[in-house]
Design brief:
four-stranded mixed beta sheet, mainly alpha, two-stranded parallel sheet, 19 helices, 5% strand
Length: 536
């Protein structure tokens, strides 16, 4: 029984089980409030309410990030938990297209299973919530899949052109989700097409892709030019600090990036060995495209960790591609399709990626193996060699659920929930046509209170000053505050971040409005407060 060879069909069933297990698991648990969810929620809510990007609200990126969450808002309601449902769908899509790319490169079924397992553990499992630095790569994956369909399948001309157009569409959608990741997706696609142009001695395929990309970009962008589109793509607004700093790249690459550099060396060595041992390797489209794709993903990962530095694991997708390439070229003399070796392989991968699930498993193990209580003055160990400092992180085990539908199944500090209760009990809330300026992370209050969201391109979804919120946004809000346009103003003070919410605007608030309440914000570092203002 243990020597029985597992069929490709059975391996596929195991893959599907793994994908469903890791993707659907978030639906069955509750989560603490997470930073930056305010942006994902409000953008999706505005789109679902029919607002037009760049006309009714401003942003420092394209609006494609919010399209899927907005659709799910329409289906399941504009709740924070709906974002998790939307991310489940996005994760399933990403797994499917990652696997489909490997299949086009004829990766053996058992290695495809291992690679999908790495992809789930390292990339999709850690992304419970929609975030543009994740979504941008998912669209890139889809675009690359259609590109390889055009380049590797024996297509009829009509199907060939269709694949190229679809590829250019999704690469553009990647760019229209986030500029840096999307631009790198375009550069990678062009590099792959340049190789094909050299091999075929024709630039026809490259020109079709570029032409389709240009047409699609025009169809999306031209209607937005009347709404000051260029401003919100960080063009021409003072002050602006570019993230393209050479020293940042050099420091990140040479001081860190251990895995990326290791994979690069191994992949390059494999490529050189194939070049020397396999005649005609340079013109083998499938083999060379797989090599170039892997190298391109690794270079992209090195660059994007600087331009998109939050979260720190923004680029972990590179593990899956590097692993798939290395293992499929390793020439093992073992049959991993046998049950014992298959289980051993999956177990080693599970052990390799223990860091993410151990954060949750540790809580259970600690109940069985409680830590010994020691006095730091008497015992010097790994945990006590440095005198403890006052903890700056909140104990999220004490966070609670609220009765508000927009925040269902989301834990927040008890003080935050009580603060929301206070806002909801204010007399001003009952005012007809209530005007609210909400410069906090609690954007779902728009649904709970029921006020109409302000429609103006100067109303940025991201109030981070000198990142997505500039001088004329400050002037816009200060002018409205000076006229006392708003009935209720909510502002969040986050002292450990650099002007995350504009203190210039806060100065204007204090001139004309009086603080009525102040309560703890839903952040791990408990020094951030939400301030509630009414007119003086």
């Amino acid at each position: 029984m243990l020597d029985k060879h597992i069929s490709e069909k059975q391996l596929l069933y195991i893959e599907i089980t793994i994908a469903l297990l890791f993707s659907l698991a978030p639906l069955f648990v509750t989560f603490p409030f997470r930073i930056n969810l305010f942006l994902a929620w409000e953008g999706a809510y505005r789109l679902s309410e029919g607002q037009v990007p760049f006309r009714d609200f401003g942003m420092p990126l394209g609006y494609i990030f919010w399209v899927v969450p907005a659709i799910f808002f329409k289906i399941f309601g504009p709740y924070m938990y709906t974002l998790i449902i939307a991310q489940v769908f996005i994760n399933l899509v990403s797994i499917y297209f990652f696997r489909s790319i490997l299949k086009l490169f004829e990766v053996p079924a058992v290695y495809m299973l291992f690679s999908v397992f790495v992809f789930c553990l390292s990339f999709s499992f850690i992304n419970f919530w929609p975030w543009y630095n994740h979504t941008v790569f998912v669209y890139e994956l889809i675009g690359l899949y259609f590109l390889f369909c055009a380049l590797l399948k024996n297509n009829k001309p009509s199907r060939f052109y269709l694949y190229l157009v679809l590829s250019s569409l999704f690469v553009f959608l990647s760019f229209f989700t986030k500029q840096d990741g999307g631009a790198l997706a375009l550069v990678l696609s062009l590099a792959l097409l340049l190789y094909i142009s050299i091999v075929d001695k024709s630039i026809k395929t490259l020109l079709i892709f570029v032409g389709a990309f240009a047409v699609i970009a025009a169809l999306f962008i031209v209607p937005l030019l009347q709404y000051d589109f260029a401003y919100w793509f960080n063009y021409g607004q003072p002050p602006h600090y570019s993230r393209l700093n050479l020293m940042d790249f050099l420091n990140e690459i040479f001081l860190r990036s251990i895995w990326e550099k290791f994979y690069l060396v191994v992949v390059v060595v494999i490529g050189i060995s194939k070049l020397n041992s396999i005649p005609g390797f340079l013109t083998n489209r499938r083999a060379m495209l797989f090599l170039l794709l892997t190298l391109g993903i690794l270079v992209q990962a090195l660059l994007v960790q600087v331009t998109s530095y939050i979260p720190h694991n923004v680029n972990v997708y590179f593990h899956s591609f590097a692993f798939a390439y290395i293992i499929s070229n390793a020439h093992f003399k073992l049959d991993f399709a046998k049950p014992v070796l298959l289980i051993a392989g999956l177990a080693f991968i599970f052990f390799w990626w223990s860091a993410d699930y151990w954060k949750y498993g540790e809580r259970i193990v600690r109940r069985i193996l409680p830590a010994k209580e020691v006095q730091t003055e008497d015992v010097v160990s790994k945990n006590t060699w440095q005198l403890a400092q006052d903890s700056t992180f909140a104990d999220r085990s004490e966070w609670v659920l609220s009765e508000y539908k927009a925040f269902q199944k989301i834990y927040m500090p008890k003080e935050t929930v009580l603060g929301i209760d206070t806002i909801m009990s204010m007399d001003i809330i009952k005012k007809k046509d209530l005007k609210v300026l909400n410069m906090t992370e609690l954007t779902p209050l728009a649904y709970e209170i029921g006020y109409e969201l302000e429609a103006n391109p100067r109303y940025s979804l991201w109030f981070h000053q000198n990142v997505a919120f500039f001088d004329r946004e400050v002037d816009y809000f200060c002018e409205k505050l000076n006229k006392e346009t708003y009935d209720l103003v909510l502002f969040q003070d986050i002292p450990n971040l650099n002007s995350f919410f504009s203190y210039d605007v806060r100065d204007c608030i204090l001139e004309h409005y009086e603080m009525k309440h102040r309560f703890l914000a839903p952040r791990e570092i408990p020094n951030s407060y939400i301030e509630v203002y009414e007119r003086k």
